[in-house]
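Notes to self after the Tuesday call (sharing in case useful).
The group wants a holo model before anyone commits to mutagenesis around the pocket. I volunteered. Ligand is WQD. Logging inputs and output together so the record is complete.
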Amino acid sequence: MSPAILVTGGAGYVGSHTVMTLLERSDNSEYEIVVVDNLTNAYRSDGEKKPEPLKRIEEMTGKNIHFYDIDIRDKEGLNRIFSSHNIECVIHFAALKAVGESVEKPLEYYQANISGTCTLFEAMRKYGVYKLVYSSSCTVYGEPEKLPLDEAHPTGRGLTSPYGKSKYFCEEIMKDLCRSDPKWMIISLRYFNPVGAHKSGRIGEDPSGLPNNLMPFISQVAVGRLKELLVFGNDYPTIDGTGVRDYIHVQDLAEGHVKAIKLFKQTEFSGFHAVNLGTGTGYSVLQMISAFEKASGKKIPYKIVARRAGDIAANYADVSLAHRLLGWRATRTLDDMCRDTWAWQRANPAGFRS
Ligand code: NAD
Ligand code: WQD
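Result:
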């Protein structure tokens, strides 16, 4: 059997771009790609076997993706996957990710993000698969004590949402796993704010309902799906008073995962490593609006409203460890992020349902 990479949540936003990158690059052609996704946040048209993003990736690359519509909490389902494929490593994206919703539904979030992750790890251990890339988040840092945020910054302090806590708890679980058995090789990638889309404009971010995040909200205003953007606060101690974040192109992020997998080939590599993936530069909400207006040629009407509960003024990453350890650096600019988001949104005004 050919070696395979198991991608949980591979039909979602970051997962689908990573699958695309894995299949596009010939140096990964030795691997089969196996995706497990329960489609809670991914779209499949009626009567189709595969979710729309994976169908499109297969069309673009001419390659096959093995797909399983299975919940990562389904132990028997995971056993079937691990016994049917020669899985060498796992990239674990599957999770619920809406910060606000997690406050309303903590049990659902802890179930999916923590129990699901433990069930996956049990299956990995059972089948002797110890290489893992985990989707973590800058949210584990809480309110920054200093900027830029490096990986030595304390984590878990003052986290307010069950979502954020679930990412922090999973990191603690992974540290314990690595202490318990030196066979584990875990890279926890702490994403800053992923935006953008594949340059083809055929896959991209497709939030269900009202977008929670800034970039999809702006692009839905630009395409006419939403009337205006609400800017949450202009009284932060930042360049123009609006919140500052480290936006990173999803293609750069996807390439970070490919680099992480390459590290597993080094025999001296083991244990738990947390690595920031960002650009190292922060942009304010107003800067994002103006960059998007330039890329799209559309006016983005907006209104300043009160701060959003739980928001911080600013964050951006120290990305030097990613460069040292993974040999990775983000190469795409803010203009690239806006151009590619717009190409996706314009071609797919209603997302994958278009
Ligand atoms: P997404 O919702 O687009 O993708 C997650 C995928 O996982 C979806 O396709 C969903 O159907 C699937 N899924 C959810 N629960 C599952 C379960 N129990 N079993 C099987 N599949 C399940 O989200 P995304 O933006 O691609 O995020 C991917 C990962 O990156 C998540 O772990 C998220 O927490 C993390 N992350 C995302 C961001 C961001 O802003 N997008 C930032 C930091 C970290
Ligand atoms: C960015 C800026 C808002 C929407 C979230 C999660 C975090 C991580 C990344 C997963 C802020 C402002 C937003 C809007 C606005 N995800 N904004 N109007 O809050 O940095 O992080 O996504 O791990 O955990 O919390 O991203 O895109 O929601 O907000 O003014 O309609 O845009 O206040 O300053 P955030 P965001």
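Two things stood out.
The chain is about 40% helix and 15% strand.
The mean pLDDT is 97.
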